[in-house]
Amino acid sequence: MNHLKAKGIFFLLLTLYCAILQSCGGVPEETSSNETSDKVFAVADILTLVAEENDITRTLYTKGIVGAGKKQGLKFDEDWQDDEVEAGPLPALFLRGISSDIRKSDVPLGLYLGSDFPINASNKFQGKQAELFAKIKADQKPQHFYEEDQKLYTSMFADLAVAAPCVNCHNDHKSTTKTDWKLGDVMGATTWQYPSDSLSYKEAIGVINAYRNGTKAIYNAYLEEIAAFKIDSTKPQIGNKWPSKGFYLPTAEVFIDSVRKLASYHSLEKLLLADTKKTTKTKDLVSR
């Protein structure tokens, strides 16, 4: 069995595992007078988990779609949704599309991308986040804190220049305030927010699904834009092939499946680890 197939099986097991928990009424409740709730995940852990999946998604999109696609003649533009522009979303706009779809869902998850040298001035970090971003630039370590003004638990993660298209676009953009970006630089930070300090299994799965649904929504929006291109020669063939093979684009299902195969093993490990800790704690309390 190859590595990707194994990860696909782990994602299936993750789905079945959560379904079993829900059908059985969730994890066992503690019988001690010191009962705890079903909130088994610290919010920082879940925001870290979804941020890591976002890194995988954006790297795959940036390198596998934008970088390889440009070599085949595909175009990407900040005005990609304008009727007169036949192009796809740049990586930052791909993330914005995910964020927009999450806001439409019932999951209270916030996501946005900021920087100290943003192309769009509204994305410049201010106040406490600007101070914490200075630390992220220095050591690339995540920052977790409670945002008093918004009453939200917040986690910030370094956003690195992982591919040449990111560097070239930012250096050459007409509105850029920095023209010497290079590969590996901390270009900004993804900021994630949630209103509670802990999550249940159902809420954790909801966060993961909200992110994945957002990814699928923006990718489908890109494919719909391609379908509306007026010039047939600018339309790549949509199927199971990637731009590295020619003038192709994968379907949304193929793209999302690739992300899941790369990310789901890690997600399952974290969920199972939390369940193990919960079960051990329950046994300890019951035995007293």
UniProtKB/TrEMBL annotation:
UniProt xrefs under Pfam families: Tll0287-like
Source taxon at top rank: Bacteria
Domain Tll0287-like: 113-193
Record's keyword terms, sorted: Signal
Sections of the chain in a coiled coil: none
Transmembrane intervals: none
InterPro entries in the cross-refs: Tll0287-like_dom
Residues spanning the signal sequence: 1-23
Protein name: DUF3365 domain-containing protein
